[in-house]
Specification:
- The structure is a single chain.
- With about 280 residues, the protein is α/β, with parallel strands linked by helices.
- It folds into 2 domains: about 100 residues, Ribosomal protein L30/S12 (60s Ribosomal Protein L30, Chain: A, 2-Layer Sandwich); about 160 residues, SPOUT methyltransferase, trefoil knot domain (Alpha/beta knot, 3-Layer(aba) Sandwich).
- It contains 11 helices and 12 strands.
- Strands 8-7-6-11-9-12-10 form a 7-stranded parallel β-sheet, sandwiched between helices. Strands 1-4-3-5-2 form a 5-stranded mixed β-sheet, sandwiched between helices.
- Strand 6, helix 8 and strand 7 form a beta-alpha-beta unit.
- The longest helix has 15 residues.
C-alpha cells in the first residue's frame, strides 16, 4: 500500500490523472477517471479495478475512516492525500467530490457478454436486453444506464455508439449504474446476429411505429432498441424481424428524452413479465 501527500496542483500524478478527462488519453491508456466516492464504490462492486485514489486531505474523522475503508476494500491501492488547490485542479468544475479514482476500463467485447451476465439473469425465464443505437450524448447514456439498472435488464448493447462509454460525464450521470449493468459494443449487424442466435425478440421504439408500446405480448426473451434523440433509429433497425412500437404522444412535441422513452417501454416489459 502506498500513501502519499500531494500539495501542488502541478504534481505529475495530478497532471496524469487530469489528462484522463481527454478522450484520446483514455483511449491510449485504457484508464478512466471517476468522480466521487459513491460512484467509485459502485465501480469496485461491479468488478472494476480501481488503481489509484486522490482523496482531499482533511483533519476530520470521516477522512480517516474513508481512507481506512478503501485500504480494506482494495489492499495495495495507491492513495494520494491531496490539498484543496490540487483537488480543485483535478475535480470537474466546482463540484466538491472529496475523492477521485483512476480505474482500468473493462472489456466491452460482444463475444464475452454471455459470461459477464450475472447467473441470476441468465437463468431466469424473463430476460430483457436494451440496445442503444448510435447514442451520442454522454449525459443521455448515463441517464439511460440508470434506467437500465432500475429495470433490472440483463445487459445493455451499444450499437455503433457515438458517445464514448467512459466519458466522465456519462459516468457521473449514471451515478455508478454504468458499472453495475453488463455492456457490450458492436455494429448493428453484429448485435442483431447476437440477439437472433439466442432467439431474443427485437422491438424498436419508433415515432412512426404502427403498434403502441403496450400492444405486443412481449416474449420472455426480449430486446428493446432505442435510437439517438437527434437522429432516431438507424436504417439497420428497419427490418422484417424487428417490430416497431411507438409511445402514444398527445402533445405538439413528437419526441421524448431517451431515458424517459426507455423507462416507459422497459417497465411495460417488466409489467408483462410479472416483475412489477
Amino acid at each position: 500500500m502506498t500513501v502519499e501527500s500531494i500539495s501542488s496542483p502541478s504534481n505529475q500524478r495530478i497532471k496524469a490523472a487530469n489528462s484522463l478527462r481527454d478522450p484520446r488519453e483514455r483511449r491510449d491508456s485504457g484508464l478512466m477517471i471517476i468522480d466521487g466516492d459513491s460512484i467509485a464504490r459502485h465501480a469496485h462492486a461491479g468488478g472494476i479495478e480501481c488503481t489509484e485514489l486522490f482523496v482531499l486531505e482533511t483533519s476530520e474523522e470521516s477522512h480517516r475512516l474513508l481512507v481506512s475503508d478503501w485500504q480494506t476494500l482494495v489492499p495495495g491501492i495507491r492513495i494520494n492525500l491531496i490539498s484543496k488547490p490540487a483537488m480543485a485542479k483535478l475535480q470537474y468544475g466546482d463540484r466538491d467530490v472529496g475523492l477521485i479514482a483512476v480505474a482500468r476500463q473493462p472489456s466491452l467485447a460482444l463475444e464475452t457478454l454471455d459470461e459477464r451476465i450475472a447467473p441470476t439473469k441468465k437463468d431466469t425465464d424473463a430476460k430483457c436486453f436494451l440496445v442503444l443505437d448510435r447514442m451520442e450524448k454522454p449525459g443521455n447514456l448515463g441517464a439511460v444506464m440508470r434506467t437500465a439498472d432500475a429495470a433490472g435488464v440483463s445487459a445493455v448493447l451499444l450499437s455503433d455508439p457515438v458517445s464514448e462509454m467512459w466519458n466522465p460525464n456519462a459516468i457521473r450521470a449514471s451515478l455508478g449504474a454504468l458499472f453495475r449493468v453488463p455492456m457490450a459494443v458492436g455494429s448493428a449487424k453484429q448485435i442483431q446476429a447476437w440477439l437472433t442466435e439466442r432467439s431474443i425478440a427485437i422491438y424498436a421504439a419508433r415515432v412512426d411505429g404502427t403498434l403502441p408500446h403496450t400492444a405486443p405480448k412481449y416474449e420472455k426473451a426480449v430486446s428493446i432498441v432505442v435510437g439517438s434523440e437527434s437522429d432516431g433509429l438507424g436504417e439497420n433497425w428497419v427490418k422484417q424481424d424487428v417490430t416497431a412500437v411507438r409511445i402514444p404522444m398527445h402533445g405538439a412535441i413528437d419526441s421524448l428524452n431517451a431515458s424517459v422513452s426507455t423507462s416507459i417501454i422497459l417497465f411495460e416489459v417488466l409489467r408483462q413479465h410479472g416483475r412489477v
